[in-house]
Amino acid sequence: GCGNSALSHDLYELGYTDVTSIDFSPACIAAMRARYARCPGLRWAVMDIRALAFPDASFDVVLEKGTLDVLMVEETDPWHVSPQAAAAMHRVLAEVSRVLRPGGCFISITFAQPHFRKPHYAQEAFGWSLRHAACGDGDAGAFHYFVYVMRKGQPLDPRDVALGQRLHQPP
């Protein structure tokens, strides 16, 4: 879900010249292709995050910024996520795990606080470790956002395993 964000181009300008961006919207991808046609290392594809069309172990890094939040937008109680939303999140994360190479890194940037998001990420089936950090400028009126980093092939901390197991228990 790259949307019309300049993040892909910003990464390109920083020297990451092999960047693949996806979005569900054909119009969005067409606009991004046109906007950044001068950047040959930027690739754009129309794709559904629930069914990635990439081969297994294709990427060293998968980065998402707010895309997973869309899966939770209709949830009315973040403490008790519907089975449909939990299944959709699991499906997407399984796809991310599948396309990551061993040792690869999944980075998720979101406003979702750890007590709401970590249970989704902390699934042993994904085969990754889990870390997170709160970010923000320290201004009392500012919203904090969170960066989650999952490393493929590293074990989950036992406390995170327990969080993941809690997700599948009835409320």
Structural notes for this entry:
The chain has helices at residues 7-13, 26-35, 83-99, 114-121, 158-167, and strands at 19-23, 42-46, 59-65, 100-110, 131-135, 145-151. Helix 4 crosses helix 5 (158-167). It is globular. With 171 residues, it is an alpha/beta fold. It contains 5 helices and 6 strands. The mean pLDDT is 92. The longest helix has 17 residues, at 83-99. The strands form 2 sheets. It has a 4-stranded mixed beta sheet. A two-stranded parallel sheet has the order 1-2.
Notable characteristics:
171 residues, Rossmann fold, 5 helices, 2 domains, globular, two-stranded parallel sheet, single chain, 4-stranded mixed sheet, 6 strands, alpha/beta
Q: What is the fold named in CATH at topology level of the largest domain?
A: Rossmann fold
- CATH class type of the largest domain: Alpha Beta
Tally the beta strands: 6
Strand order of the largest sheet: 3-4-6-5
Which sequence of SSEs, written as H and E, runs from N to C?
HEHEEHEHEEH
CATH homologous superfamily identity of the largest domain: Vaccinia Virus protein VP39
Largest sheet: 4 strands, mixed
- What number of structural domains do the residues give? 2
Work out the helicity level.
25-40%
Principal-axes geometry comes out as globular
- Alpha-beta classification: alpha/beta
Number of helical stretches of at least 4 residues: 5
Keywords: Methyltransferase, Transferase
Family: Belongs to the methyltransferase superfamily.
Organism: Hippolais icterina
Protein name: EFMT4 methyltransferase
